[in-house]
Amino acid sequence: MWYNWFILVTEVLITMDLEQIKELISNSGKKITDQRIALSEIFLRHPHQYLSAKKIRKMLEEEYNFVMSFDTIYNNLYMFRDLRIIEEQVFHTEAQYCLNHSLHPHHHIICTKCGKKEDIEDLCPHEELEARYPNYLIINHIFEVYGICDECQQKAE
After folding, report:
1. 118 φ, ψ to 5°?
2. Do residue 26 and residue 70 come from a single domain?
3. 141 annotated ligand binder
4. pLDDT computed for residue 9 by the predictor
5. How far is CA 142 from CA 14, 87, 145, in A?
6. Residue 125: what pLDDT?
7. 124 is in an annotated binding site
8. Has 149 been labeled as part of a binding site?
9. Is 152 annotated as contributing to ligand binding?
10. Cα distance between residue 104 and residue 126, in whole Å
């Protein structure tokens, strides 16, 4: 079943290295380009950091001397996302990307003042949604909670 394939692919990605990323790209029928290698290296060097397309473009220019259009960057990000190399989250209406190292969908609580992000543990509606909507093959979901963190609340007092 598709879900079992997803778990298998995700388990492979937990300890991902550049060779595994290149293999995933190649197996998908896409070319392994210098730009895709550079993009892979950026995510491997920042495995727990969410990066926007704007930040990635700046890193590609500064570290690799690649000037890429946003269309090209987004096309590669979407391909990486679809191959489960990276995960995509939307923070304050901006998509950001991080190396995929999770077996399950990833959820966050986000401070609306400072942008601090924390993982929400042990709260995932995926199985409940599958039970409630058996006629759907649920492949992904986004769950975000917004609030004001302790530090920002203390600053406001």
Report:
1. -130, 145
2. yes
3. yes
4. 42
5. 20, 11, 10
6. 77
7. no
8. yes
9. yes
10. 9
